[in-house]
Amino acid sequence: MQSDIVIVLLASLQLSLRITPLVIVAATLVRSVLLLTGRKRAFHTWTRNTLLSVLTIVFAPGMIVNTLIRYVVCALFKIDIEGVGGGSTYAEFNLFLEVGKPPHVAILLSALFASSVLSVFVSLSLLFIPFVLLMGVPIVMLCWYVAMSVLLNSCIRSGDIILLGESLKKHGERGVLELVFVIAALALFYTQIVGVVM
Length: 198
Description:
This protein is mainly alpha-helical and 198 residues long. It has helices at residues 2-36, 50-58, 60-76, 105-132, 137-152, 158-193; strands at 81-89, 92-99. A hairpin with a 2-residue loop joins strand 1 (81-89) and strand 2 (92-99). Helix 1 (2-36) packs across helix 4 (105-132) and helix 4 (105-132) packs antiparallel against helix 5.
């Protein structure tokens, strides 16, 4: 039983490394499409975007898990985190990390990538481990629900872009060089090591 769990975890980690870029792109596209379908007049109804509001509430567990993973990873990368913030702008539930000072670009991108891989890993583990442990249908369905919630929340958010912009502004040319280096390293990793064409 324990060896089966280890095998599933290792397979989940390997698959997570392969599919993380695809998950990020897909989740970001879904969120972007939902955002673009919102009403332009903020107070026309109780929410700008009823569908997005419902989805953020229904899949809130995934947002919580993603935020916790980001918090732990950013703490390990020594990013200056002041706390976890939250809001409900026009009924669209949102959680985010409050960062004190912009970190170096390489550290920020590495932390975002690592937290994304971990989020996908948690999702895949929740999808497969219940079968190894022979859990009942209700537990399996709960695990799948949380797994899908985490996957759908594994997207690039506006706060990520703003923080990257602040990091680039603060660190100038060095920040740009770090950005190019990290992108090149990830491209090399995925085309030469992992074997996935980006």
